[in-house]
């Protein structure tokens, strides 16, 4: 009797164990898991995201057509995966569900030689393009209607306007620190006071040498809007409006990295995966 009871207990335990294993759902197959060996695919930091270590699969390469298309299909289909990050030898691409274009973002792979080249302490300055909306203003009236001030912020340096030119409806102003210690410590701000309606565009000018993309060393004009605080606008009364913004090297590094990553995708990766 005891042997029968013991056998029944063991049988029940085994059935229970098998039942628990079968209750654990297997991870669903996705297009990306069919395109590359699973050992190169990991869970991402966010829920329902995957990371593909492509450069471990194919050294010195960024992606191939099969993996690229599979990443797109994975986030566009019913797999439940919202983001797929493909980490290549020089470029990292993030494919995101609902994005208007794929990949949704590109960036330089951290720690690579290209990344280190781009994120050097390049010399930079600020550049403003001010357009008058009242086209009947003469150049002299336009000049008197605009006041530009620049200041170093907690650096001990002196900020100054390097040049100011007026051509037609536009005023172009370049400004920078007059003393530069460590370039990555640069931190300055500008204020534009205008007594006439204007449109203001703020940019970085970076002097850099990026072999294969910016060669020989030359000035690259970069968009500020995605990496620096937005322009603060304030009505000072009496028809005068103030526009202020701060800039630092962190923003320069980010915007230059975005620029090179965008070019790298278009020039190096897209011809392979299209």
Written account of the structure:
There is one protein chain. The chain is an alpha+beta fold and 274 residues long. It is 30% helix and 38% strand. It is built from 7 helices and 14 strands. It has helices at 2-23, 31-35, 54-57, 65-76, 113-118, 139-145, 249-273, and strands at residues 41-43, 49-53, 83-87, 91-96, 105-108, 123-132, 146-152, 159-167, 170-177, 187-194, 198-210, 214-223, 232-237, 240-248. A hairpin with a 2-residue loop joins β13 and β14. The model is unreliable at 1-22 (pLDDT under 50). This is Lipoprotein. Keywords: Signal.
Instruction: Please report the total strand number as a whole number.
Output: 14
**In what order do the strands lie side by side in the largest sheet?**
1-2-3-4-5
Computed Rg: 28 Å
Mean pLDDT: 89
The biggest beta sheet reads:
5 strands, mixed
Task: Report how far the terminal alpha carbons are from each other.
Answer: 72 Å
Shape: elongated
> Treating each run of at least 4 consecutive H or I residues as one helix, how many helices?
7
- Amount of helix: 25-40%
Which regions contain 5 or more consecutive residues with pLDDT less than 50?
A: 1-22
Signal peptide: 1-21
Protein name: Lipoprotein
Organism: Mucilaginibacter lappiensis
Keywords: Signal
């Amino acid at each position: 009797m005891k042997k029968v009871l013991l056998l029944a207990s063991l049988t029940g335990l085994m059935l229970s164990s098998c039942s628990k294993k079968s209750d654990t759902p297997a991870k669903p197959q996705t297009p990306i898991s069919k395109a590359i060996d699973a050992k190169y695919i990991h869970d991402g930091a966010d829920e329902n995201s995957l990371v593909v270590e492509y450069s471990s699969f194919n050294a010195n390469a960024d992606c191939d057509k099969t993996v690229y298309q599979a990443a797109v299909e994975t986030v566009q289909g019913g797999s439940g995966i919202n983001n797929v990050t493909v980490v290549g030898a020089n470029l990292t691409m993030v494919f995101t569900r609902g994005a208007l274009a794929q990949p949704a973002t590109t960036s330089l792979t951290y720690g690579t030689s290209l990344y280190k080249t781009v994120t050097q302490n390049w010399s930079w300055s600020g550049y403003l393009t001010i357009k008058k909306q009242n086209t009947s203003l003469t150049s002299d009236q336009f000049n008197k209607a605009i006041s530009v001030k620049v200041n170093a912020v907690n650096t001990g340096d002196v900020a100054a306007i390097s040049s100011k030119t007026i051509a037609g409806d536009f005023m172009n102003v370049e400004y920078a620190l007059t003393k530069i210690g460590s370039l990555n410590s640069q931190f300055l701000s500008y204020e534009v006071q205008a007594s006439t309606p204007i449109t203001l565009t703020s940019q970085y000018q970076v002097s850099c040498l990026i072999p294969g993309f910016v060669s020989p060393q030359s000035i690259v004009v970069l968009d500020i809007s995605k990496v620096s605080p937005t322009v603060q606008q304030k009505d000072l009364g009496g028809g005068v409006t103030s526009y202020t913004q701060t800039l630092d090297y962190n923003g320069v590094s980010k915007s230059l990295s975005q620029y090179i990553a965008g070019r790298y995708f278009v020039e190096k990766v897209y011809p392979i995966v299209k």
